[in-house]
Amino acid sequence: MRILDFVKPKELARVARLQMLAREVVEGYCTGRHRSPHKGFSVEFKEHRQYVQGDELKNIDWKVFAKSDRLFIRQYEEETNLRCSILVDQSGSMEYGGTRSVEGLTKREYAVRLSAAIAYFLLGQQDPVGLITFDNEIRNQVPLRSRPSHLRAILTALLSNHDRRETDLGNVFRKVITKLGKRGLVVILSDSMGDIESLSRSLAQMRAARHEVIFFQILDPDEVDFPFTGRVQFKDLELAAPEQMVDARVLGDAYRQRLLQHNDDLKEACRRSRVDLVQVTTDQPFVDVLHEYVAARRRLTR
Amino acid sequence: MNLLNGVLAFGALAFSIPLVIHLFFRSRFQTIDWGAMHLLQAVVQVNRRRMQLANLLLLLLRCLIPVILAFCLARPVWTGLKAVAGDTPKTLIIAIDDSRSMSLTPQGQPSLLEQAKEQLRSVLGELSRRDEVILVRSSRVASVPSKMGVSEALTKLRKLSPEGGPTTIGQLLEAAVVAAQDATHRRRQIVLLSDFQECIIDATSLETAQRVADETKVLAGQGVETYFDFIDLQPDWDAINNVSVDSVSVQSPVVVRQRAGVYEATIRNSGEAAANDVRLVWSIDGQSLDPRTISVDAKSVVTNRLTQTIDDPGQHLVTAMIDRSDMLIEDNHRGVVVDVMSAVNVLLVDGKPSSRPLGGQADFLAIALSPFAFGGDDRPDPVKSSVVTVDQMPASISEDAPRVVILADVPALQPEQRSTLVDFVNQGGALVVFDGPDVDIETYNATWQADGQSLSFPAVLGTVNQTAQEDSDQGLDSAKLSFSIDRPNPQYDPWKVIANGNGNPFSDVTLNAYRRLSFDKTLSPEAQSAKRVLMQTTAGDLLAVAAPVGEGTIVQFAFTANDAWSNLPLRPVFLPMVSQMVLDLAGKREQWDIPVGQPLVLDSSDFEATDLEASDNSIRWSVTLPDGEVAQAMPSGDEVLRFTDTYQEGLYTIARRSAMDNQTAAKSVPSVVRLVSVDANESSLRGAGQQQIDRLRESLQASLFDDASGLNAADRTRQFGREIWRWLWCVLLVALVAELWLQQNVLAKRRVQGGIR
């Protein structure tokens, strides 16, 4: 099992170029009680400020003092290790794959690939990466590690067996929060099919635990524009619910309206919790999505 | 519900076409494993019920359209919950009012009867050959109508003329229902055509209608269906223009030849405008007298008197005719038959004849009854009186055939004399009894019996009431000490001529004595009420009492006919008093006038004694009708002739002749005449109120139609049910529009708007 099974070499190359940047300072392994092992390498000058009593003397810029006869302190922007937990939705609804998606992937397969790419990319930065797969419960959990060999464990977990269970994002996320540990980056890959209200509360809790959250909402193009016509029998992928025989043409608009409403609710929930929402359809190359997101984050950071 | 084109109803099976199409499309669908059921479910739940309802409605409409179309083409008829008669034959009973008022001819229209005939022709035109018709005419409700076919009915209808008298709707209905009992078919339609004149709908009619309705219900239980229809032929009563002669009567109590008789005609103007300068022509036996001109105000009545002498004794026809064209011409003339007598025979029975002048009991009466003869005048007296003794009386009665017998102070009568009088009075003679000192009270207070007939006097005789002065011979002329007579009974017509305005004609009469008369209180109230007091004292004692006995009359006086008890015979008032009373008593109150349609009843006594003494079998009766036709008639036993064919107005001459008398046809034969006339009520042109008609209609559950077309349509509905394809067409149209609207506006709009509302 290799990363190339999930990500093509060409895409992988693009992934490697990506820089995952945290918008906020995330508490890493090397700050706090221990000194950083890569001192001077990873420290970037930020600004000077006037010395006040109590500042450590070692931070005084003596060169400036020599020039100006004033005491200034050099301030550095510290880089920390990014603790990234990837939450992958493996519920039944993620099993839908339309004809227009990339290589006919289902949403779950798409999410798997995307998460593999992210893991690979972060491990490449030697950031610790963990994985949690879930449907209505937590199904698999891979702890945070920064070793490159950890990728294999993540990939294994991603490919583990999955049943078509229903989604209950709100509940699951509440359980997940307890397992995330220290604050870090949480990447959620889900189609967000569920109660937005409950989800909203969970996201708020997550944010309260000072996690940085990126929500990738993965939808199939069919789910977005509902291209069906004529009499269609819709079978639920999650539950053995009664099949719905509908006149798709009649329902199309109503459905799109409902989806719009749903997405608006989700956006609103994310905005309130200051969660980054990335809406993705499976017909987009996932690396592009990742790239665009990172670029956007970088722009915001600068 | 019946279908006229039942086969086409199978077209309703076409409803399966949209159903099959629906099911066919329902079976074609694709299955998709869907993830976002979370979103879809909500939409489906919101829309499913609405969509299903709309779709179901659309499917129903589409199924309904071919069904309605098929039903339209199948021509359904609505019959309610009843079974319809269909083609079963029926009996049409035409109850037609052919009274005179139906000859009313409104301005610019045919007469009401002609209108009725026109309507009936239309009704008859709808009948099939199996149907039968019974024609019941209001003028002949008593006769038994016959069943006939349509063509015969049309012929009879053509001959129908409005000459009947007023027959109430009740009688007509009853006759129609009786006629319906003979109907062959179990389905009976009674069509009543009338102008619904006021006089023909009375309370009895409404009761009869209710009874008839009850009988009909009973019959309905036995499977005989009877229904009533009215055709209303009422004219615009307010626009009536008619002057009619309502009556012609003889005012004189008796008409004697060569003496003036008084006749009176009543002329009514029913119109809203006054009738001025109307020519009124009196005629006697067809000989017109000089015309007169009269004016009659709107809605009023005038009387016109004719005083005319008729020279020849016998029956004469006096007619009054109005020369005016109005809406009802038939009632512009009317007549009366007058029996002109040569003289009235009066037999005076003197109970105490005397050789002295005016000494007898009846002498004053003889003078009072024949004043011209007494005075040597040439002029004829109306009364021919003869004075006889009691013993001569029976013989004189049989010989002279007097109309009036006057007993003056007749003390007592032998049984045979009594029986003669009993027969005389019971057969119509008039008996006048004057009191006197010799009268045997017991004789007059007893009831006289003879041959099963009886005679009792109106008052019971008591003692003589005299003034005390008479006993002491102080003279008769003591006015203070005499009884005074009150004014005569104003209700007694003959004595109206002696009435002296408000004064008392008897004020100068002194009455010294009179017999106490009293009524027998034990008699029945009817017998009591039949008695009339003609004269009484101012104190209230009876002086003259009259009462009918058998067919005759008895008048009893409490005083004498001579001047023994009073000076009345010496007074001028005595002559007119006695002569008018005698003429009134002599006048035969026989009914010469017969209402149209009533049978003519005659027996030998109606003829003067003739030489026809042959056996009954050899006597032939013949009746000459007003139109000149001669009908032979046979007496129906007892020598009584009943002639029922009196449906024409006019003079009927009934002759009786011997069978062996044919060769002497030219010789005058004894005959009597009867005048058949239509009741004046027929000229009373007022309509019964709509309320009355409605009550009548409601009690019979009848339908009222203005013309035959409405009746025919209603009858077709009754027979076959109501065709409802027009309504179905409307429903179809509505269904089509609804289908289009539902498809275009509801379903299509939902598609466009996404269906969420």
Descriptive keywords:
heterodimer; A: 302 residues; alpha/beta; Rossmann fold; 2 domains; 6-stranded mixed beta sheet; two-stranded antiparallel ribbon; B: 757 residues; 5 domains; 7-stranded mixed beta sheet; 17 helices
Strand and helix layout:
The complex is a heterodimer of chains A (302) and B (757).
Chain A lengths: L8 H9 L25 E8 L11 H7 L3 E7 L5 E6 L17 H18 L4 E6 L3 E8 L4 H10 L9 H12 L4 E6 L5 H13 L3 E8 L1 H5 L5 E6 L7 E4 H25 L3 E6 L4 H16 L1
Parallel strand pairs in A: 3-4, 3-6, 6-7, 7-10
Antiparallel strand pairs in A: 1-2, 4-5, 8-9
Helix pairs in contact in A: 3-4, 5-6, 6-8
Chain B lengths: L1 E2 L12 H11 L3 E5 L2 H37 L2 E3 L11 E7 L15 H14 L6 E6 L9 E2 L1 H10 L9 H13 L5 E8 L8 H19 L3 E8 L10 E8 L4 E2 L3 E10 L5 E10 L2 E2 L3 E5 L3 E10 L4 E10 L9 E9 L2 E7 L12 H7 L1 H5 L7 E6 L4 H8 L3 E5 L6 H12 L3 E5 L6 H5 L2 E3 L2 E3 L4 E7 L1 H4 L41 E6 L6 H6 L1 E5 L5 E8 L2 E6 L16 H13 L6 E3 L4 E3 L16 E6 L5 E4 L7 E3 L6 E9 L12 E7 L12 H11 L2 E3 L2 H13 L1 E2 L1 H29 L4
Helix pairs in contact in B: 2-17, 3-4, 3-16, 5-6, 6-15, 7-14
Briefly characterize the structure:
The complex is a heterodimer of chains A (302) and B (757). Chain A is built from nine helices and ten strands.
